[in-house]
Amino acid sequence: MGIETSCDETSAAILKAGRKILSNVIASSLPLHQRFGGIIPEIASRAHLEQISRVSEIALRRARIKIRDIGLICVTNEPGLTGALLVGLSFSRALALARNIPYLEINHLKAHIYASLLGKGKTNFPFIGFVISGGHTNMFLVKDILHWREIASTRDDAVGESYDKVAKILGLGFPGGPIIEKRALQGNPHKIKLTCANLENSLDFSFSGIKTAVLYKCRELERFGSFKENIDNLAASFQENVISVLVQKALTACKKYKIKNLSLGGGVTVNNFLRKKLVEAAKAEKINVLFPEKELCLDNAAMIAGLGYGIFKYQSHN
Ligand code: KG4
Ligand code: ZN
Predict the structure, then answer these.
(1) At what angle do helices 82-99 and 41-63 cross, to 10 degrees?
(2) How far apart are CA 113 and CA 270, in angstroms?
(3) What is the dihedral of CA 156, 159, 160, 162, to 10 degrees?
(4) Ligand 1 pocket, 160 CB below 6 A?
(5) For residues 316 and 231, which has the higher predicted lDDT (pLDDT)?
(6) How many helices and strands (H and E) does the chain possess?
(7) Among all ligands shown, which has an atom nearest to the Cα of 243?
(8) Could you tell me the sign of the dihedral formed by the alpha carbons of 121, 247, 139, 2, in that order?
(9) Within 100-257, where are the H helices?
């Protein structure tokens, strides 16, 4: 059983043998945050408290499993909103203790990447793991299920965060990722010139500069009365620049560490433009790319249970 409450999704999942998803129930409090233009931690914690028991019961019912048949409880312990994490952790600890069920705490970022391996048969160690989400942009060199070495991170904004902030600047609403992807389809990425920082001699990222560049461009266009007609072009140019850096850095990491497998995860990996660009570029370098199924890209408990089971099995055999 997996439990996830790190941000705005209350989720519970039941997996068979760590791979087959029997249920993956997700209740999002996103509608409650939308009018604020971002996630409000206190609202998220309260929503988790209201939802966690119900969501867990539904997950068990959908999987046709009784709590006494659960062999392991896995829960997200970091990173995330403190109050939100606390709800899932307290619930899971109490359940595990009361029912005498083995219990494991799981890192949310690693689970996002592990989602790309769920249901895919054999795991592909060693690989470069790349999480691209609302709060994080990190690469890991993953030797086996227990050995993850962080090799890159963002020095400021995460990619999803920059999509959300740019969407806000463009007046498109929250969350920004899906809206920008849609609007970019109708825009010309070359009409408005933007650049995304590509830190030389480093695998690290920086996305706050391009966000500010979009802000200044909008002000300039507004002065000339041509902002509205250029929203799609701004979205397209922003997306093309950001994704080009992500693709470039991912392939550079694979080359640097001589790794031929790349596994991704996190909310931004839903993005079709990213998927297409990365698959094309990786093919030329003979690198195998794995994305999670789309419903496993955003926050969910199946990925927590999947990674938890893998770690539990590894530890039991070693
Ligand atoms: O993984 P996630 O739930 O967040 C964290 O765990 O931090 O991902 C949420 C993020 C948001 O920033 C959202 O704008 C972005 O994923 N996102 C997208 C798309 N769909 C969601 N970004 C780009 N393109 C999308 N289609
Ligand atoms: Zn996440």
Answers:
(1) 30
(2) 13
(3) 60
(4) yes
(5) 231
(6) 10, 10
(7) 1
(8) negative
(9) 108-114, 159-169, 176-185, 208-223, 231-256
